[in-house]
Design a protein that fits this description.
By secondary structure, the chain is α+β, with helices and mostly antiparallel strands. The chain has two helices and ten strands; from the N terminus they run ββαβββββββαβ. It has two domains: 116 residues, no CATH class; 68 residues, 2-Layer Sandwich (Zincin-like), CATH 3.30.2010.30. It is 13% helix and 31% strand. The strands form three sheets. The protein has a four-stranded antiparallel sheet with strand order 1-2-7-4, with no helix packed on it. A three-stranded antiparallel sheet has the order 3-6-5, with no helix packed on it. Strand 9, helix 2 and strand 10 form a beta-alpha-beta unit.
Length: 185
């Protein structure tokens, strides 16, 4: 998390790296460091699909075990707090707004929390099998251009993937305006 911009009065963004993680990597994976110490360069980017140990790694971390995830977030009244999963509860107490989210199924250890003064556009996509998926677009109230194109694009993408690959498996998709001061996404 960027300590200078992770939490601001007009919005917040941080992700799972703020939490402790139980994992230790003994390998020197940076080939520049390996070369500096006279070690053979490692060709670790594309292990064979038969490599059982490599299949334990995934895009975001070295532990491919999936986990249950739920979070209750608090933010300034008037802002919307967002986490991965389905919004299961929302309430206000004093000058705070609270949101509880829960994933529909186990997931990788990768998530983020966002809070800001968002305007929201909602729509719905219905899969060929009849399953509904909510489309939610969280954006700055000042930035209203092209929102309809985003929604239309999501529906076209889901239709294409359903026909040629698999249906979208979740009951919601969120497009969230990302803070310009961060370099993560």
């Amino acid at each position: 998390m960027d300590t200078e911009t992770g939490i601001l009065d007009h919005g917040t963004f941080f992700r799972n790296v703020i939490f402790p993680s139980l994992y230790y990597d003994r390998a020197l994976s940076d080939n520049g460091v390996r070369k500096k110490y006279g070690l053979v360069e490692s060709d670790f980017l594309y292990p064979p699909r038969t490599d059982i140990m490599a299949r334990k790694n995934n895009l975001f971390n070295k532990d491919a075990n999936y986990r249950n995830f739920g979070a209750t977030l608090s933010t300034t009244k008037g802002q919307i707090a967002i986490a991965s999963g389905i919004l299961t509860k929302r309430w206000e107490e004093g000058c705070r707004s609270y949101y509880t989210y829960k994933l529909e199924e186990k997931s990788d250890y990768f998530f983020s929390f966002v809070s800001a003064d968002y305007a929201v556009v909602t729509d719905e996509w219905i899969s060929p099998s009849g399953k509904k998926a909510a489309i939610e677009m969280y954006h700055s109230p000042k930035h209203k251009n092209n929102l309809g194109y985003f929604v239309k694009g999501i529906k076209i993408l889901f239709d294409y993937n359903s026909k040629n690959y698999l249906e979208y498996p979740h009951s919601v998709i969120r497009v969230i305006k990302f803070p310009a001061h961060s370099n993560f996404a």
